[in-house]
Amino acid sequence: MKLSPDRKLSGILAPLFALRTADDLGIGDTESLKELVDWSSAHGFGLVQVLPINETGGDNSPYNIISSLALDPTTIATNPKALKDLPAADFKKICAKHDIAALRTGKVNYRGVRALKGALLEAAYKKFKTKHLKEKTRRAKEFATWSKENAAWLEPYTLFRALVRLHGDNENTDLWPKKQRTYATAKKWLSSASPADKRKVRALRDFFAYVQWIAYRQWSELKAYGDERNVALVGDVPVGVSIFSADVFAQPEIFDLTRSAGAPPEKVFAADPFTAKWGQNWGFPLYNWNEMAKDDYAWWRQRLRTTMEIFHFLRVDHALGFFRIYSFPWRPERNDEFLPLSEEEAKARTGGELPRFVPGDDSTEESCEMNRAQGDRLFRMIVEETGKHRLIAEDLGEMSPYVRPVLQAQEIPGFKIPLWEIAPDGWPTPGREYERLSLATYATHDHPALRAYWNEWYTNSQSPDPHKAHAALRQMQEITRFAEMNVQLPAPWSDEVHEGLLRGLFASNSWLAVNMITDIFGTAERFNVPGAIGDQNWTDRFPVPVAEWDKHWPQKVAKLGAMMRETGRYSA
């Protein structure tokens, strides 16, 4: 597929789990995304962006992954049509034991979905063993070849994953016997294990390798499907991996396990008291960049190279973290302990350490240059693996002054969120002045939908508190001024407001204009509330199945096509 900044594109950001189809199993998967690719192709969208699809831990967060390369089994389409090793009779029998109707209703029930898809994958693998492995068929040879080509990450991953299963599906290695907590020690343990334990572990490792083979086959086929329909897939590379991940298990030396990655306090997330006071504590270990440099960042290169096999673009999460990253001297499990403490009280419990930037902050010219040089070096390595104009850097938050110049010098598109791109006159920078190498969007997965923002502003604009009313009116004025809309404010949400905002984003000079799926149709689902814990995160599903969008929103769909043609974004 030819992709060039010379040709502007429009896109849809759709969390995979949120997509509905007529016969899904309670969560979106590769079949759901295939329907979205078809819909996008038919309506002029040239991009489909998803959140990370790596395997997650117990909290189901796509940004808290237990492997940098293993794909989450829930993304696999597990019907007999897509999963060729699964007999139709087995599919029917297994589904009868699960309440499919309940799984399809409301939010994602991860426990139920994982149990169902896990059973279907086990049935498929059982058939694969008897039909292909035993008979040494061509399909068995393809599996063996893929496993050999990916052995560098697959071998430690499958042992880690087998141990997770043996420990009751608990990836917390702190709770495992010491001799099993790293790949090196676990291999020694396994070599002296009983024949029965060795067979059990071998069977589990073979199964988990099969699951990954199927996942990569489906996603590779999906990328080719996008090529055929002129729709590029945008993947997401999380900035970190879980401290309880196959990566830390395999190579603990390339991580700094003494500190926990995060982000400094931001007003935009003031609703969460810990985030407002201390910042976001994500819990990921930091990278030991000096150790990684010894083999020319082989871990990163493998991660990027393999991920590019299934995506056309990669969005690299938290670009600032490659220059300098905010970090905590305690893990998230202790956040409640530190919430009420003063800085001095916190120091007393950490040996004098406080949350801070690593390698350093930007308080001196020397530290600024050190941070700049590190980011420049790392992004050059990343572009070497992805290729030119195939990387998108999430450069949001409190950016250091050297970040965007480094990205621009390497021709890496960054993000443009209109309400955050402020010109010297205090108003949003007009979209026509955006750099071509950029991605324009109104919000990310961490923010409310556009409709929710607008409804809150409108409600606040009616407040008897003049300061609150004025602030809300100002926000409405800023976003409509960016979109060059002629609307009497304050105004409630309407089709006119919705259309005007979409047109304004499409009209920007950015190469890529991407709207969340909620903003495309003017709905108000929210997929993540930073700092919040519970089932409100990563569980909301889009209310209407992909195949019914045209029938459900015929006028909106027609307007979308017209706007993209008018603004030169319609992908034929």
Task: Describe what you observe in this structure.
An eight-stranded parallel beta sheet has the order 9-6-3-2-1-12-11-10. It has a four-stranded antiparallel beta sheet with strand order 5-4-7-8. Helix content is 44%, strand content 10%. The protein is of the alpha/beta class and 572 residues long. Helix 2 packs antiparallel against helix 4, helix 17 packs across helix 18 and helix 19 runs parallel beside helix 22. The mean pLDDT is 96. It has 22 helices and twelve strands.
List the helices and strands and how they pair.
Layout: E1 9-13, H1 30-42, E2 47-49, H2 88-96, H3 100-103, H4 110-133, H5 138-149, H6 151-166, H7 183-191, H8 195-228, E3 232-237, H9 246-250, E4 255-263, H10 273-277, E5 280-287, H11 289-293, H12 298-307, E6 313-316, E7 325-328, H13 335-338, H14 343-350, E8 356-358, H15 365-386, E9 391-393, H16 403-409, E10 414-416, E11 438-440, H17 450-461, H18 466-482, H19 495-506, E12 512-516, H20 517-521, H21 549-552, H22 554-566
Parallel strand pairs: 1-2, 1-12, 2-3, 3-6, 6-9, 10-11, 11-12
Antiparallel strand pairs: 4-5, 4-7, 7-8
Helix pairs in contact: 1-8, 2-4, 6-8, 12-15, 17-18, 19-22
